[in-house]
Amino acid sequence: MNRRYSEHDPEHYDRPNRRGSRPRTKERPTYADAVPGVIVTVDRGRFTVMVAGRLIWAVKARPLGRKGVVVGDRVRLEGDVSGVDGSLARIVEVEERTTVLRRTADDDDPYERVIVANATQLVVVTALADPEPRHGLIDRALVAAYDAGLSPLLCLTKADLADPEILLSTYRALGVPWVVTHGVNQPGGGDLSELRERLEGQSSVLLGHSGVGKSTLVNALVPDARREVGHVNAVTGRGRHTSTSALMLRLPDAGDDLTRGWIIDTPGIRSFGLAHVEPEHLIEAFPDLDEMTEDCPRGCTHGADEPECGLDEAVERGDADPERVMSFRRLLDARSVSSY
Q: Domain 279-334 - what CATH class?
């Protein structure tokens, strides 16, 4: 027996790194005593995990190999889960993910990067001014949300600087829900009751460009978060990155459910590749339009330049809202338009 591990350690059952070797035992560990937790942040191979209302630190057990573990993953742990200084547990299992929000570095990059697992809602945080809204990122975020099976929500900040109707008119045909925040930067934090209602019972990813007020929202929603707040460069109109890693935070009064009542703050992004999204998968997020494409020619992408597309025929018959079809096709185009 390897002296480094007892017979109760998962590592004891590893296959030696010798070609042709056999497993040391046919009996695999059951992890009967493993405790459940959820990954709240990742930092250079170390994981912070919420277990029974307390934060503990963990590393991956060797049997997991190269298996990725990301924020939002529900895991099972063995070892020291006391959370005291110097303690360290082992992640021995990663439960099956219900949803995966991913992106690529750019549209030509085949390598997918998982942003967060097991979320239920994607909150696209957009400033109405300072910096100006960037429709490219909003469209791409919506595509990623639909592809991942997440419910999208537009959260519009800095409503004191511009009329939200100008932006909302672009997305109303898609049926995307929205909420406008007021006075978050003012003393008292403004009224966030509508946003809190939208977040209740959800595991929500907050995504947006730097400088849109995402960290300010997080600090108002979770006062103990203390996320650093940045400012917009007066020359470039771009914000400074303040969040450097994704962080999952429990909303106040969320209860004991490990899967609900969370927000995930993500670093401000400047690119959101969609190389992994297929057109046929995107249209499935719009059941009314999907039904109208049943007789499309094989290989039809449902774009505006496709001959004999069922969407065009539905518009001609009056069965489809032209504005909704146009908005859907704008999302299709967002997969290949890189100016965002």
A: mainly alpha
